[in-house]
Amino acid sequence: MGVRNQTQVVEFVFLGFSGIPNSHLYLFLPFLAVYLVTVLGNLMIFTLIQLDSSLQSPMYYFLRHLSCLDICISSVTVPKILVNFLYQRQTITYNQCMAQMFFLMSFTGTEAALLAVMAYDRYAAICKPLHYSRLMNRKVCTILAFATWVWGFLDSALHTALSSKLRFCGVNQINHIFCDIPPLMKISCNDAHINQLATHIASLFVGVAPFLFIILSYLFILCSILKIHSTTGKRKAFSTCASHLTVVIIYFGDGVLNYNHPGADYSLETETLVSTMYCIIPPMLNPLIYSFRNKEVKGALKKVLESQRKVYL
Known about the structure:
By secondary structure, the chain is mainly α. Helices cover 77% and strands 3% of the residues. It is globular.
């Protein structure tokens, strides 16, 4: 037992796909397809906003950051999953695990804060239209965007530093498909109370606080919309919020399923499904949501396609 306590693991084994026989044969192409759709879709949104002069408002400035974050979140986890499928080994080194966890938490924490900032932008546009240009000028937008990234990275740095103190005593099998705090704490052999306390506190500031801020913003937005007399005006106001609200529901809904569920009651297969939905599905859906539900983005995409068609004709 003394020898076991002194043995620190150098790599971890993911058990998330262990219940699926020959998973590398069936899952490699679907995961690759989803990853390509995610990267190409978000690159499309990013490029359209960069090139089209009609997409230069604060809302699209923040959407460009969201597209960048979605590419980063997907790229932290999916390429490693694909490599493991190719080599038929569901492993990751200790250092890679810490790095993956650091960047995943950084990007997801940043996205939660960014969604709250985007809700504030919609609040300022609908509830304070006369002061909108002052409230959301270029300097303010730059500061808010920078603050969201700093917020996410500082939170992640704290958790990663605490996680580096965990000892695993030779136990290296993780019931997950990527490195994250909850599964690592489950297999830790030393006291993880500080990590658990930090996780609960961080969830309040990084998860609950942005969500409550978004809810509060939309309550004010709803009150302002209900005061609009024309049906057309109400519909237009609702349409500017629909895409963002859909993304918020998907993001925080998946976050709740992944981090705030009774883990003991979940089978390994269900745990794997929830983890897949959390790290892969939202980044893929976000560009599709903003493409199909936003007239300005669809208009910009149509202009680009028509210009390209004229070039080749």
